Amino acid sequence: MDAVVNLQSTPVGTALAPAVIIGGISLFLIKKFVVDHKVKSPSNLPCLPEVPGLPLIGNLLQLKEKKPHKTFTKWAETYGPVYSIKTGSSTMVVLNSNDVVKEAMVTRFPAISTRKLSKALKILTADKTMVATSDYDEFHKTVKRHLLTHILGPNAQKRHRNNRDTLIENTSNQLHTLLKNHPLESINFRDLFEFGLFGFAMKQTLGEDVESIYVDELGTKMSRHDIFNCLVHDPMVGAIDVDWRDFFPYLKWIPNKSFENKIERMDIRRMAVMKSLVRRARELSASREGVQCYLDYLESEGKTLSESQILMLLWEVIIETSDTTVVATEWAIYELAKDSKRQERLYEEINRVCGSEKITEEKLPQLPYLYAIFQETLRMHSPVPIIPLRYVHEDTQLGGYFVPSGSEIAINIYGCNMDKDVWENPEQWNPERFMDEKSDSMDLHKSMAFGGGKRVCAGALEAMTISRMAIGRLIQEFEWRVTDGQIEDVDTVGLTSRKLHPMMAIIKPRS
Ligand code: HEM
């Protein structure tokens, strides 16, 4: 207490004193908490290897670079494919090999089927009101069924064929127009395709691709660009925003208003835009027959869903459609634009199968090299490098180690895909690895980019079709070359990892 007394005699000390007292009490509580929670294996199984960190904060400082998938992969070389770290007071078990990931997703799934969300995600997912972030319960099963039946399952995908064809046609037309108007300028494919996918998502969910809207609750008219920021960009950035209280839940009584206000503002704006879009979509629906979009479907089938649940489920499709597919497609075209030989090999394959006709979805099964390019891109540049954290709700085991309830599980897909025991020269982009005789269609699951088990990605079929069609069509019509001096680094935005700077490419129409 001496320090407190001395500090109190200065003006700065007057301000600091309460903080020091709180700090002193907190330290005592933390120490007690850590001692009380020191885990001992009640079974004969060994405890997990631990990555050494600092007292109280654990390994947090080692993770501040915001590319945890890379740090986790490096640690796996020393501590093995499964180990534990400390993020403040929480224990996180990190899985870095296919075998142990499959064990978590399938065999031990009943003990690891829930999620623990950060403060930001709790607000942005309206406390798990989404397929992707809910626990594995009746709500999850019902809403995943809705999503598959109306949008993402094989039959639903057949019904949305026109929208996909329009998306690919528009993307190609826009590139031709850009080339005609600015023949010497490099192309930012990401911006163009991201906007295309956003429009596609709005059509599937709300029945139309909205150009602008007046948002009553905010008293302002929003352009399509503003709507995109409110519904996609801002929540993506917010999703990984860190409230330090996430790591020290027993200090949650200390206010962190600026953080809460920022995320709550994002939530309010997003919901205001969604309400206006839905109001307009309902007016449109009233003038036409039958189920045209996901909103119509949810209103006719999901009678037990509340209005706010409907808004969240529609928003979920918009954000998921607008993000991961563009990440994968941009990486694939970037790799091809750097590698003229492989680009030529793909062009020849398409030429052989399609001749002078435009590539169509019917032709995709006859294009194994295109498929290999897509798979290899997902392996090397997994758009979701770490699966949203799972939570262990009863004691279990993984990789032969005891895993206590209360742990979080980080599934490091990137780490699995860089495993030297499974992949030869994993750091090289080499689609041919999926073309040899040993390779079969199951290899897509070997890269595990879409997760697995009961929580496997619901949008895998749509993403595979759209991405392969976009890559195929754009290579069929243009020759791609990256501009000089591109930095190949990764940026983790939200839960996905994209190229740090958008690919800038010079394109030339093929004759
Ligand atoms: C290349 C593109 C994509 C990749 C790499 C990808 C990857 C993933 C991954 C890793 C998961 C987590 C699985 C788990 O928790 O075990 C997931 C879940 C999910 N994804 Fe995707 N995804 C992609 C595209 C899409 C698209 C286009 C949609 C469509 C709207 C979508 C909808 C979902 C949903 C709803 C879930 C939650 C499934 C559940 O929890 O049961 N994904 N995705």
TrEMBL record:
It is a single-pass membrane protein. It comes from the Eukaryota. One of its GO terms (biological process) is gibberellin biosynthetic process. GO terms for cellular component: chloroplast outer membrane; endoplasmic reticulum. Gene3D superfamilies: Cytochrome P450 (1.10.630.10). Pfam families: p450. PROSITE patterns: CYTOCHROME_P450 (PS00086). Heme binds at C457. One of its GO terms (molecular function) is heme binding. It is found in: Membrane. Keywords: Heme, Iron, Membrane, Metal-binding, Monooxygenase, Oxidoreductase, Transmembrane, Transmembrane helix. Transmembrane segments: none annotated. InterPro entries: Cyt_P450, Cyt_P450_CS, Cyt_P450_E_grp-I, Cyt_P450_sf, KO_chloroplastic. Its cofactor is heme. Belongs to the cytochrome P450 family. PANTHER family: ENT-KAURENE OXIDASE, CHLOROPLASTIC. This is Uncharacterized protein. It comes from Daucus carota subsp. sativus. The lineage of its organism: Eukaryota, Viridiplantae, Streptophyta, Embryophyta, Tracheophyta.
